[in-house]
């Protein structure tokens, strides 16, 4: 095992994505070359490519204040700078949630800081992302580690305010430190949120890192619990090995992290940091390891996590070992074990998510196209067989073949005409589905809930109003799921009808994930309901905490419903596309054959020339089918095994 493991896995994952994207682009060209192109189908493939392009792999670090989360990030990802990049010294650490990534749109390096005073509004952080004027932006000199580290010290900035002002900003008084110089006042973070973009090799390849500062941030920023943490592929919960699981650790775990355990495609891990505080020169290494094993077992019981998902590490010693290239110290720090665990799990989860959201659908498209080519091949062979039975200069037989082709052509036109009312029916069903979750319906529900919150006079009343909102949303999605089931059965019925009555190849229709809609909503509602119960919010809707929580909840649900509407719209446009494509392909083959036969009638040409042309067409089709089969095999192939060669170690990528 080397310190390059995370970089190797990220590199392999990126190469795999690039290969998938290459195959999808090749398939788009292949469709045009084989007269199977449709605007709707091409747009869907473009959307799948965009999903790959915009893909991020996110690792979130959560835990109580001063557990060494930021030092752990420095040790795992940024040791190649030869110094700390993020502030993690004692008493000088990040004070606000910080996202580290590479901005692919602007391709610039910067530190953006959102002032803490923006908490006085009910605007979610997600909305502020589109308001550049609200952020303080500081350029980063990515080629100067010392200067970059100096700028990053801005993340540690605090300000002194009266207790009442701190409470208004959403802080809990009991979690704040009193100012040493100004009695009666408390110290709070100067910034609400930070965005850091710079071209580190891993960040450029799509890695995103989220650093959270502790309970006062998690407790007062609903987006962290409802959006940012659940969107990660791994959440690393950091504690101190010498303290074990403290009461405040358990508070964060129970209120903000534990619910993530059952999420698909998300790994949840615990880190017992600062194991070097347990190192004792008077004790043997074996005795120390036994002590660590006891702490791991106790942590496993308390957090209900598998022992294999709990890693004792020393971030400080791991960083030092990497900077000094001290392999013995590196092994003793256990940093490599954590890197291996995260890289295997995180990329595995993300790969599975892309498999479900991109590859399965694209592979189904390619399979359908292969079926169309096989049908076209059978048509050509049938035409060839008829021509081979045609006697030389047999005008009567040729006329019969022309009439047969004309009849087939008219039959395919009737089939296409029969598809038109069916498409209208599917369009109506798509409109019904979208109407269930229309902007008007959701806006009315939001207004009703706001009224209930305004009239509530107790915490119980506020929680009840929010739960009524969740219940009504759930009922709406329940109706949507029911109608989606009906839509799926309708699509299956149409496909079987055209298969049985018109002799089309059997194709499986694209179905709506009816149960998936409700499952995804239930996950969010569960988290939001728990958070509303645990927040200890104020007694009236004028409370900023309540308004921010409600606004964040509404924003998250609205974003979810917008994604569902896009999916419904796409389904309505493409539900019958494979049938339409099959009919159009077969009709085109018949048209071309009819034209050739009519040309033979006009010119008196023999069948031999047409038979030769058909042989060439069949050979060409076989070549195109082989290419499509190769695309399908490549798409469905698992990523290659990681290799040690030709990969830049993330810990050394910035050494010059």
UniProtKB/TrEMBL annotation:
Keyword annotations of the record: Coiled coil
InterPro entries in UniProt: Dynamin_N, P-loop_NTPase, TRAFAC_Dynamin-like_GTPase
Coiled-coil annotated residue ranges, if any: 363-415
Keyword Transmembrane helix (UniProt): no
Xref: Pfam families: Dynamin_N
Top-rank taxon: Bacteria
The keyword RNA-binding appears for this protein: no
Dynamin N-terminal domain boundaries: 59-274
Annotated Gene3D superfamilies: P-loop containing nucleotide triphosphate hydrolases
Full protein name: Dynamin family protein
Organism in which the protein naturally occurs: Permianibacter aggregans
Lineage, highest ranks first: Bacteria, Pseudomonadati, Pseudomonadota, Gammaproteobacteria, Pseudomonadales
């Amino acid at each position: 095992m080397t310190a390059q493991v995370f970089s190797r896995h990220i590199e392999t994952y990126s190469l795999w994505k690039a290969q998938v994207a290459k195959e999808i682009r090749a398939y788009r060209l292949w469709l045009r070359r084989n007269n199977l192109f449709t605007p709707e189908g091409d747009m869907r493939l473009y959307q799948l490519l965009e999903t790959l392009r915009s893909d991020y792999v996110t690792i979130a670090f959560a835990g109580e204040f001063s557990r060494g989360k930021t030092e752990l990030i420095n040790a795992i990802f940024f040791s190649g700078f030869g110094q700390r990049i993020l502030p993690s010294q004692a008493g000088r650490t990040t004070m606000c949630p910080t996202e580290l990534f590479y901005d692919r749109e602007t391709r610039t390096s910067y530190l953006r800081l959102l002032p803490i005073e923006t908490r006085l509004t009910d605007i979610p952080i997600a909305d502020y992302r589109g308001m550049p004027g609200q952020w303080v932006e500081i350029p980063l000199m990515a080629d100067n580690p010392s200067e970059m580290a100096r700028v990053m010290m801005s993340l540690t900035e605090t300000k002194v305010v009266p207790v009442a002002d701190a409470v208004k900003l959403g802080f809990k008084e009991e979690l704040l430190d009193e100012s040493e110089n100004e009695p009666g006042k408390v110290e709070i973070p100067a910034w609400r949120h930070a965005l850091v973009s710079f071209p580190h090799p891993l960040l450029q390849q799509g890695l995103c890192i989220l650093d959270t500062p502790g309970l006062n941030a998690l407790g007062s920023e609903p987006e962290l619990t409802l959006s940012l943490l659940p969107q990660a592929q791994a959440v690393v919960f950091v504690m101190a090995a010498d303290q074990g699981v403290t009461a405040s650790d358990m508070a964060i775990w129970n209120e903000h992290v534990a619910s993530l355990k059952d999420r698909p495609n998300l790994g949840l891990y615990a880190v017992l940091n600062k194991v070097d505080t347990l190192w004792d020169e008077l004790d043997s290494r074996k005795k120390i390891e036994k002590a660590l094993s006891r702490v791991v077992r106790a942590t496993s019981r308390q957090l209900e996590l598998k022992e294999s998902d709990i890693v004792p590490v020393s971030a400080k010693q791991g960083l030092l070992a990497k900077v000094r290239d001290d392999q013995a110290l590196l092994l003793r720090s256990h940093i490599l074990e954590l890197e291996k665990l995260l890289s295997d799990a995180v990329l595995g989860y993300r790969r599975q998510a892309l498999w479900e959201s991109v590859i399965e659908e694209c592979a189904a498209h390619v399979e359908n196209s292969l079926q169309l080519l096989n049908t076209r091949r059978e048509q050509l062979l049938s035409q060839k067989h008829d021509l081979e039975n045609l006697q030389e200069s047999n005008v009567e037989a040729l006329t019969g073949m022309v009439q047969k082709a004309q009849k087939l052509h008219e039959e395919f036109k009737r089939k296409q005409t029969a598809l038109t009312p069916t498409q209208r029916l599917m369009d109506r069903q798509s409109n019904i589905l979208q109407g269930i979750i229309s902007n008007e319906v959701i806006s009315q529900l939001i207004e009703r809930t706001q009224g209930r919150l305004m009239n509530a006079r107790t915490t119980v009343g506020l929680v009840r109003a929010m739960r009524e909102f969740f219940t009504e949303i759930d009922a709406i999605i329940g109706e949507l799921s029911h109608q989606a089931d009906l839509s799926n059965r309708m699509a299956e019925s149409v496909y079987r009808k055209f298969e049985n009555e018109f002799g089309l190849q059997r194709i499986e229709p694209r179905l709506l994930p009816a149960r998936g809609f409700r499952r995804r909503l239930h996950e969010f509602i569960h988290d939001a309901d728990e958070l509303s119960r645990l927040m200890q919010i104020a007694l009236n809707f004028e409370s900023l905490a309540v308004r921010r929580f409600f606004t964040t909840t509404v924003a998250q649900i609205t974003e979810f419903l917008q994604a569902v509407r896009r999916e419904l719209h796409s389904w309505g446009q493409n539900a019958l596309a494979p049938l339409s494509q099959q009919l159009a392909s077969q009709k085109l083959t018949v048209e071309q054959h009819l034209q050739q036969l009519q040309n033979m009638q006009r010119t008196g040409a023999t069948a031999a020339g047409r038979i030769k042309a058909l042989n060439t067409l069949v050979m060409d089709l076989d070549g195109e089918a082989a290419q499509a089969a190769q695309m399908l095999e490549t798409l469905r192939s698992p990523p290659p095994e990681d290799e040690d060669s030709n990969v830049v170690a993330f810990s050394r990528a910035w050494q010059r």
